[in-house]
Design goal:
Helix content is about 30%, strand content about 5%. It is mainly alpha-helical. It is extended and about 100 Å long.
Length: about 240
């Protein structure tokens, strides 16, 4: 007879028959990676990842933009398509293909240059945010004497708050609530994208009328409407003749 222990898979204890609980994977490391980062840093990190690993052949699912940098700024990554000559605005991301001809912007020599450019922008943005965070912390430390801190609140927690603070009293719990606000407007509106030009050029396909060569063949029903007569101008001309 085989000796069975409580920790064997087929033990004789009642607790051995209880299935083990599946512990879900923790998402704390992913949250910690994005914690404290601004939207600009997250956007640059996402752009850097796309440029490094994208094939460059996929087209923008939003259709791109054909404004030719007239409504939006010129792209600082790929200002011009080397295949078709399309002027590329900043709404056309570099990891997508050209919205007109479908040529990839990530060539063998272009991809490393774009990675280096975006990495430099990312480092500059991180440095900028760290300086701004340090400035806010320093201002919060200086304002601790003028603004009363709640029990249990530290200077670091107050430093993360914006400059504007509002104190209110909860009528039910009789507790003081400190809320922060900012005057920075947040715009979530998607910029307008210019659609591509029509595939066929609209022109008059029939030959002109020899009897009426000046006739508008595209809009044959047009009629000339003379401008209305100005009575003041007529009286002015008559006064000039008499004078």
């Amino acid at each position: 007879m085989v000796h069975r222990t409580p920790w064997t898979s087929s033990g004789s204890l009642t607790s051995d028959r209880i299935p083990a609980r599946q512990v879900p994977a923790s998402t704390t490391p992913a949250k910690q990676q994005t914690k404290g980062k601004g939207k600009a840093v997250l956007a640059l990190e996402n752009r850097l990842h796309n440029v490094e690993y994208a094939s460059g052949k996929e087209k923008d699912p939003k259709g791109g933009c054909f404004c030719l940098a007239r409504e939006h700024g010129l792209s600082t990554y790929v200002p011009l398509c080397c295949n078709c000559g399309l002027v590329v605005c900043e709404l056309n991301l570099p990891h997508y293909a050209c919205p007109h001809c479908g040529e990839s912007f990530l060539g063998n020599t272009r991809r490393p240059a774009l990675v280096a450019q975006i990495q430099e922008e990312l480092n500059a943005q991180i440095t900028k945010e760290e300086r701004e965070r340090g400035r806010i912390i320093e201002e919060a430390r200086k304002a601790e004497g003028a603004f009363p801190m709640l029990p249990g609140a530290s200077g670091t927690q107050g430093a993360r708050r914006p400059a504007g603070k509002v104190m209110s009293l909860n009528s039910t719990t009789k507790k003081v609530i400190v809320s922060s606000y900012t005057n920075t407007p947040i715009s979530s509106q998607e910029p307008r994208r210019v659609p591509p030009p029509p595939g066929e050029i609209n022109y008059v396909k029939q030959p002109p009328d020899p009897a009426h060569p000046w006739k508008n063949m595209q809009y044959p029903d047009l009629q000339y409407i003379p401008p209305p007569k100005d009575p003041s101008a007529h009286s002015r001309r008559q006064w000039e003749r008499e004078g």
